[in-house]
Write a structure and sequence with these properties.
The structure is a homotetramer. In chain A, 26% of the residues lie in helices and 26% in strands. Chain A is of the alpha+beta class. Chain A folds into 2 domains: 18-260, Aminohydrolase, N-terminal nucleophile (Ntn) domain (Glutamine Phosphoribosylpyrophosphate, subunit 1, domain 1); 279-468, 3-Layer(aba) Sandwich (Rossmann fold), CATH 3.40.50.
């Protein structure tokens, strides 16, 4: 029974995508809190496939279940849910950015405080997590995990305030970065979003009971009603009263700043049926494709989406351009493992395990391939190869977002800057040649802003977080300035 | 170590689909025969997710690996493939029709004969399997599995011929039904298709080495070339000669009859990128949608596919009707397990685990839902409910195949006739009301024939197998006439 | 889910012991037949640790559970036993002699016959198993396992008799060798022992219901009463009558021959608390030690048993010689796995994982080490080394059985003849030197006969089976004469 | 991947024994530190079968492997040991007293301090653990485990000293109770024993490299040399110097007090081949049996040990009394799981799964049963029942230790006082009747003292820890006085 044992993951193609680290879900006052949390996390599975945890409180005791793997691998077991009684629960599904893969890093994390227990889960990343951790260790704190979330727990434990809400706010005021956070105490469910609202967090209700979750799709799966987004810099405290009623207290943790949601939520992370910041993600993506068709038209016979990320944009591109939309690439639903490649290598092997060319829609055709983004470009090369092998006359790549030049520090796992395609070639034609495409075009930053928010980028006061495209980081970067991210690793590597 | 132990399956919605039982793959003369077979089976995974087996021969010894679960769960392990040396292999991926779930039923099955070992794998079902089994047991044969394939092995073992090819042909001549079969001996790879070619089987080659597989998509994944379909009633014997060359001997097992491929391969089973009987499955499905739009037009704002089966037909419907195609239903890729439903029931629960309504494309809209087929209708009810809950103004269902009235006996797992929606209501309006749709229409049988083959059904000499729609069974049904299918079960239920 | 997957075994030291292959247990008419069978097999676990299987019949259906590993690993699970309903069951625990390790070889084996199903389990080995298998395959039979038991099933299936009892007797009359066999039909529990009774089999009863099992210890664990040994060449048929009563029919399968029980059952295999052939195994072993003390006295300070086999003999030796009996070697109860030896090798490493020297009883002492038998001698070398390292002044080995010169063909897994210590050295002094002992002595064959049966060996008509010591095989050896045992392996190696 | 998942344990009979919680092992400067630690823990397996952990340091990074189950279940895997590189390691095998069963409680525990990482493992229990934990939480510390060891880590982390040795000593000075403790820093292996030396700890060496372990048997298995016992109240700091040499610094953590080793180490816990406090455990146990024979003689035919604890004492009893020693009870080596008892109950069921009566040595005999101790007496009842069922004429129980009246707080898991047999009956005859024995006698406290140390108990200054017999606790009991042990439980119950 190892706690770092074999993990089943849904691999993305060659790691040539960006990873979001987490989804969160919490509910207060519902008799089947853990069951609903499991369903909510299942709907948020796309935000993290590495591990999932749930903590519940039954009036007497906090209970935790944490498991490596998909939500459906464990929380479909009635025995597992039976171990999570109570009307209050928070849950977390994760892809790791900081912190190695080990069960003790799986959230929610829990601490027994003098004022009672507290469990915390968050999506995002602190830009001063390492700095704070060092200060805490110097002050005699023991860090059991390598997760930034534990830093918050320590700050809560060491706060001079007596009330758990005050301690929580005291703690998050010391943290910088992008985060959406949920906390569970013996009577309260607390939700908080970072000062500029980089990561999303919404509030809903089911039978009058408050729910918080990363995306609206987690409300839909359980038939809950969307109320509003948690605002940037806001803390909402829902408390179960002795008479069974629930009070809701809305506060600000910081002085108001303009909200800047992460654009990549619209480009790639959020589920298309979610509504983020009041905007349909699906509509935003179709708009990206439409704007791309306006900006980068090409004569062609067929518009083919690169599944699944590029599909809405491809549909938008097709509708705008009038070129027929066709499934030129078929996705194999049974992915997840890396098969062994024969010695006699197969062209585009990695891609073929997951996708196949639909020859009838490709052969002899001029194909526009629409993808959501290009990170390293390694997958694009194989896809073009596969499309050409299927007989395409021309292959034109259209990317529904701008070129990526800069790393992220707010919860998105980006490769080293020099691995990014955009940093390897000076112009788009060289990139097209590298990939093997007849032409290549990216959506402009203004095209993206307009697709999402209706207006072009305001360079003085950008409406969204967009540093991966522009280098304009929305906060200072304390840890990064202090040292390299590599030293963030704990010296205990726990395999088991 | 149980041989009937826990199985991970990709559940279909409520079992409200038809199941195909098998995919087969075989290759002769290639140094990485087992690795290529594993890849081929992965591409055929949609034909059976219950178990997969591979038998190889290395010049000295036959080796078998059989595992419950997906191909990728086991055959991605180098240690497993290392146990399958040799340049000859056949593999099988299965969904069980006859035969309970137990490892000893997983194909390929093997027998040691006086003339040497032989392994057999097949896709399809024998209509006289039970009858033959009874005769064999009366003659002192011992049946270890409950699989029909074992009957063929016994007939081979007891044949009076001395040559393995002659024994094989002698055996299959005694069997009736629909099947595509592969056999592996110490020197030969043999492929055979039933007299009217109900189940598909194609021949390809890689580096000059012959391959047989259920669909062309298994050739594509390894970069192999399609040569031709194995003909109905044909037996092809590929033999490795002492000098390393391969001879190919093409024979007929029976007198020629007209070919009648199963229409459901086009409607639902085959992968859209496969070419079956020389016809693109994707194009056939789009044609079904186009014909459906002609036959059953409706005023609407949006055409929404029921994923994934209905997607090509929906695209065809949209292109023909001019109504925009939109993703009104989003599929959750992380399915596979049945979550626990809260006591306070969630509307359309089962469907929501796998699909969600994309409200932005549904609310206030007149929706045309396009599905590939309706079996029991239980899923349709939930999908309509989910679409209405998302605010649809009208919901019109269009089904890209005719009503299903009759069970199958050739390898498709159909529910009891009285469970079929078409047998429960006398007219389509009553069905629509039952499902909750504003209207409902099915593609006509001629519309389907034209979509697939270009011509209407020839009632005297139907071009395809279509009994589920018409009751016109293409062969006699010996077992069925003799008794009920229930008694087909062996009296040994092996749980472990 | 592999059927040849990882197996947990209680390894014996370096394989330097003989292995018995099987224990059997059967009961008729008891409502908890499978539960009692599991307990009986647990008591017989020392006869085979590789796998265990149970078949029950509930009046409607035969059910089988077969699992690699110990009885306690699987049959302690209520869910597993619940899958074995009915008042009739037979079970088997095995160590393989013939037949590779694979679940499909685990007994009981089952066949559906025209006259109804039959399950068979046996302990022992057929000396004409291979010869019969060849005849059967030539006659068109398909062998799915590599177990000799399957040969019996085929003979039953092909018998010209109509009654299952007659078919069973017809089948075993064709088999030669040493065996104790149980069969279960829809109404009968049949027990049979080979013509000279090499392998043991006893009959007992619980609440008036008949039980058969390999040793009396399996009766003791469930509080059942011992009735008598099944006689050599006897077949006992217990039949459940329609009125619920049980009839017992005792027959002879062959002409009476004198019984010759295997001496190794007394020397090593049987549990000391069992009564075999009417003689207490424990008393027999103590007698061996006493006779050894008479035959091979030595001046010493302490008698130390080599655990656990040598313990009763050591006690006998001590009581006879007057030298104190002491635990000079302590057994580690947590064995089972082979630990990794450090590069800097540890003396007597393999032995130390399982035993340790009790220095307080060894240092400065003249030690008599008493062991039950010596096979290859590799363990003896390490034990002497360990005892010397603990400070022994002298080490004298006394072995409570004669030297082993010849292989067995009746169910005991013996190493190749040239690996046996007795065949490597011409005299006992050379052996002592090889092992590192100050002296070495073996019990004489007459000393052994007297210990077990009270009388010296009758060379013309030996009272026991003793070929491993004498070369006097009690039956002809058809397979061995026909060819080497190596070719007995099937050409299908099923890893999964 | 749960961290609280299914655990395989070697159950003791009905829980009717006392449990020791831990064994520890550490080595400094040996290239195969982890491999040797695994072997040492295997030899200490009897001290804790629930879980085992090893932490190593390779000069760069600490690595941890922790697994539920036996040492041999995991640390025999080369891949697991490969994850533990470095020349320094400490390991721990545990049976839990305080702290629930969960992987995060498995030792060694680790903390990253400002002065570098430290790993700690201990055997024993703190009598002020809960009190200290409360103080720490009030001071803002976060406790992730429910293990007392974590308290020590926090005290080290918060110590005002800068040097790790000083911090360690500062921390253990604040703890009360019985413990043997090992710590590993980047350069040091530190060993410490509680002020009166309740729990054992010895020092050895292999190739000049220092080793510490709970018992000498862990030295024997790897061929290491015993140097001396760590003294009570002593701290030994072994440090790796930059030049590769090792310095050894011996200190006192407290003012000297007389040593009082726990008597139960001699009675039951330690392995018989170990030397504890300079005395052979085996010899001490034989002495107990001899003294018992003097104190409580009885006319009988045979002395039978209750395996395995009672065996050496039984041998002593037999040698002293002249009554023959015989194996009247045979132990089944394949225990570990609880089988299902038939509805029709089996007499002495629980005992029979593990032991069986050797009827040949029992029937018609007057039997002296010698056991090491009686806790609740539930097992004794069943054993007497089994012996009587086997035909014993008389059954006399002789217990080689005094009656147990009081619970332990130093690492032995004792049942509630009212469950102890000695507290349920006023005199030994009533107990004998309750158990079903013809007579019953316990060794006197002086008899025990003499057996172990040669002298009777000095009531003013007892030479050993013996409160379970006498009520004379060797330290104050802060936690117990403050409240009940029940409230020691954390409010987080982590199932996964």
């Amino acid at each position: 029974m190892s706690d770092g044992a074999a993990i089943t993951m849904i691999d993305e193609l060659d790691g040539d995508t960006l990873h979001e680290e987490c989804g969160v879900f919490g509910i207060l006052g519902h008799p089947e809190a853990a069951t609903l949390t499991a369903l909510g996390l299942h709907a948020l599975q796309h935000r993290g496939q590495e591990a999932a945890g749930i903590v519940s409180f039954d009036g007497q005791q906090f209970r935790a279940e944490k498991h490596m793997g998909l939500v459906g691998d464990h929380y479909t077991n009635p025995a597992t849910l039976a171990k999570l009684p109570g009307a209050m629960a928070i849950g977390h599904t994760r892809y790791s950015t900081t912190g190695e893969v080990a069960l003790r890093n799986v959230q929610p994390l829990f601490a027994e405080l003098e004022v009672g227990g507290i469990a915390v889960a968050h999506n995002g990343n602190f830009t001063n997590g390492l700095t704070m951790r060092r200060q805490l260790i110097a002050g005699g704190a023991i860090c059991q995990s390598t997760s930034d979330t534990e830093v918050v727990l320590h700050l809560i434990a060491r706060s001079r305030y007596t009330n758990s809400t005050d301690r929580f706010i005291d703690a998050i005021r010391q943290m910088e970065g992008g985060y959406s956070m949920l906390a569970l105490t013996r009577t309260k469910l607390i939700a908080a979003r970072d000062p500029i609202g980089i990561r999303p967090l919404v509030m809903g209700e089911l039978d009058g009971k408050p729910i918080f979750c990363s995306e609206t799709c987690a409300l839909d799966i359980i038939g809950a009603k969307y109320i509003r987004d948690v605002e940037n810099g806001e803390v909402i405290i829902c408390e179960m009263q002795p008479d069974g009623s629930i009070t809701i207290d809305e506060r600000k943790s910081t002085n108001p700043q303009p909200e800047r949601l992460c654009l990549f939520e619209y480009v790639y992370f959020a589920r298309p049926d979610s509504v983020v910041g009041g905007r349909s993600v699906y509509v935003a993506r179709k708009n990206m494709g439409m704007n791309l068709a306006k900006e980068a038209a090409v004569e062609a016979d067929v518009v083919v989406p690169v599944p699944d990320g590029g599909t809405p944009a491809a549909l938008g591109y097709a509708q705008q351009s009038g070129i027929p939309f066709e499934y030129g690439i078929i996705r194999n639903h049974y992915v997840g493992r890396t098969f062994i490649e024969p010695t006699q290598q197969i062209r585009a092997f990695g891609v073929k395990l997951k996708h196949s060319a639909n020859r009838a829609m490709i052969a002899g055709k001029r194909v526009v391939l629409v993808d959501d983004s290009i990170v390293r470009g390694t997958t694009s090369i194989k896809i073009v190869q596969m499309i050409r092998d299927a007989g395409a006359k021309e292959v034109h790549i259209r990317v529904a977002s701008p070129m990526i030049f800069y790393p992220d520090f707010y919860g998105i796992d980006t490769p080293d800057a020099d691995k990014l395609l955009a940093n390897q070639y000076s112009d788009v034609n060289a990139m097209a040649k590298h990939i093997g495409a007849d032409s290549l075009a990216f959506l402009s930053i203004d095209g993206l802003y307009q697709a999402v928010g209706g207006e072009a980028r305001n360079p003085k006061k950008p409406q969204f977080t967009d540093h991966y495209f522009t280098g304009d980081y929305p906060t200072r970067l304390l840890d990064k300035d202090a040292e390299t991210a590599g030293s963030k690793r704990s010296v205990l590597a726990a395999g088991g």
